[in-house]
């Protein structure tokens, strides 16, 4: 029996494109006035097993050691793929694919090298002027992430990260510079990339180091509260500066299924979903702390400092749309000793025996994508924007400079089909920025061999190679897909 093919129902103005992060692509870590960020202090460990379930931790010691070392082999994100100097060439390739939108992040440590400078770094702003103008000159809508896993080290050293309430005003000042500078040029903004990662990897997102403090978990959620307040304040500011601005929240949605239909497993999964995913969206998109979060805080002896003024700002300035990343799904059980671990996004997850996986052990679940989009839209009823979706693969540059990647095409085809079905279900989806349209340094492992792109960058894990860009087979597939506005048949 033939499977029904969904009709091509993507809106005519649907925003097809791709997404990069400055801290993984830009390089030039010590040029143009930029100071160190946490990613600049993340080592590449060549002996590390690809499916190692443990994730590299950032400590005060690793940061202090990195400050004394100018090595770009040991710290690959310092070199990235040299987007700082190749942005014209790279954006031209995006334009050739027909991108309607390009999501990129701005480095706080470039714009305010000390974090609390009186005036912004003009050299940095000129660079981002050029990137944004290059997009506009190629009829590509720029979508800017204001903070994308690139916590400035100076804000850790001098303020203790987001645990300090003072970071709210520093962030608002940073955003005001961007909103005014790019008024009329940038319409779409994301306040914090995957804000729910703050509860898992607090150094990259919050700048809060785990040094054995008894109240460490409390510090993390206090820092998160400060980010919630900051996001609400800059959402208001963005609308005041330009009424056309659209400001989105963003989470990495950890789609989770019960291991069995045993009621205890279903209940456990519901509770798990609340604090992994919904808590962050409830605050940013509903404007208040949900009941279950208050219970979680009570059960974990977490006492937050929250003023009525904070709560009012959050209530009155909710996000305009929800951005999400979707990579894989997982399972949960009230008896986890029965389950097997496998690597996942940021941390290990329990293996679903019904799913395949990539070379890094990440599970592949296209149908879960449709489920996730429906789940989120049903709860919040605001436009959704898929800001990251893809999978890392091992690519081979052939002797004739071709790269054949049918596995990437298959992965994206199956996910875009489910995205199409979600739209048919009634989900209001406004855009799709595939993660990593050009190969760059991996966020979690700092390796180059974990490739996502349609464009191959000739650089290995140690920075060797010509750095030339080559089009993969998927480059032409995505170009055709965009030209057909998502009709994959």
UniProtKB/TrEMBL annotation:
* Keyword Hydrolase tagged: yes
* One cellular-component annotation, GO: cytosol
The GO biological-process annotations, alphabetized, read as: carbohydrate catabolic process
Keyword annotations of the record: Glycosidase, Hydrolase
* GO molecular function, a single term: beta-glucosidase activity
InterPro entries per the record?
GH, Glyco_hydro_1
The family assignment reads:
Belongs to the glycosyl hydrolase 1 family.
**Record's protein name:** 6-phospho-beta-glucosidase
């Amino acid at each position: 029996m033939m499977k029904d093919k969904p009709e091509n129902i993507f809106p005519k103005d649907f925003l097809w494109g791709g997404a990069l992060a400055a801290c993984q692509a830009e390089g030039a870590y010590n040029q143009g006035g930029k100071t160190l960020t946490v990613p600049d202090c993340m080592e590449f460990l060549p002996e590390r097993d690809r499916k190692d379930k443990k994730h590299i931790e950032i400590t005060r010691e690793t940061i202090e050691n990195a400050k004394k070392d100018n090595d770009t082999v040991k710290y690959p994100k310092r070199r990235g793929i040299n987007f700082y100097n190749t942005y014209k060439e790279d954006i031209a390739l995006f334009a050739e694919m027909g991108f309607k939108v390009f999501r990129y992040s701005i480095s706080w440590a470039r714009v305010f090298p000390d974090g609390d400078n009186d005036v912004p770094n003009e050299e940095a702003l000129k660079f981002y002027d050029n990137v944004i103008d290059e997009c506009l000159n190629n009829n590509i809508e720029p979508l800017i992430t204001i903070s994308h896993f690139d916590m400035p080290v100076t804000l850790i050293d001098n303020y203790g990260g987001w645990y300090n309430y003072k970071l709210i005003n520093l962030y608002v000042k940073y955003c005001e510079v961007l909103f005014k500078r790019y008024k009329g040029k940038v319409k779409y903004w994301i306040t914090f990339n995957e804000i729910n990662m703050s509860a898992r990897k607090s150094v990259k997102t919050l700048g809060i180091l785990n040094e054995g403090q008894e109240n460490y978990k409390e510090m993390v959620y206090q820092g998160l509260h400060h980010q919630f307040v900051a996001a609400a304040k800059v959402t208001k500011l963005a609308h005041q500066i330009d009424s056309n601005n659209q400001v989105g929240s963003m989470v990495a949605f950890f789609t989770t299924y019960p291991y069995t239909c045993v009621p205890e497993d279903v209940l456990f999964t519901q509770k798990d979903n609340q604090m992994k995913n919904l808590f962050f969206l409830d605050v940013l998109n509903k404007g208040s702390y949900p009941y279950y979060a208050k219970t979680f805080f009570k059960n974990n002896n977490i006492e937050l400092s929250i003023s009525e003024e904070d709560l009012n700002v959050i209530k009155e300035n909710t996000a305009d749309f929800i951005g999400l990343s979707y990579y894989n799904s997982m399972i949960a059980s009230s008896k986890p000793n029965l389950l097997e671990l496998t690597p996942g996004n940021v941390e290990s997850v329990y293996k679903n025996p019904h799913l395949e996986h990539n070379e890094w052990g990440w599970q592949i679940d296209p149908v879960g994508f449709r489920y996730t989009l429906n789940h989120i839209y049903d709860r919040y009823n605001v436009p959704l924007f898929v800001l990251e979706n893809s999978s890392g693969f091992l690519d081979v540059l052939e002797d004739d400079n071709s790269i054949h990647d049918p596995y990437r095409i298959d992965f994206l085809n199956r996910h875009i089909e489910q995205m199409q079905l979600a739209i048919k279900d009634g989900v209001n989806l406004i855009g799709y920025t595939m993660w990593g349209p050009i190969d760059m340094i991996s966020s979690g492992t700092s390796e180059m061999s974990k490739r996502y792109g349609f464009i191959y960058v000739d650089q290995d894990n140690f920075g060797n190679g010509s750095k030339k860009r080559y089009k993969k087979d998927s480059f032409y597939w995505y170009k055709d897909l965009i030209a057909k506005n998502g009709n994959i048949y």
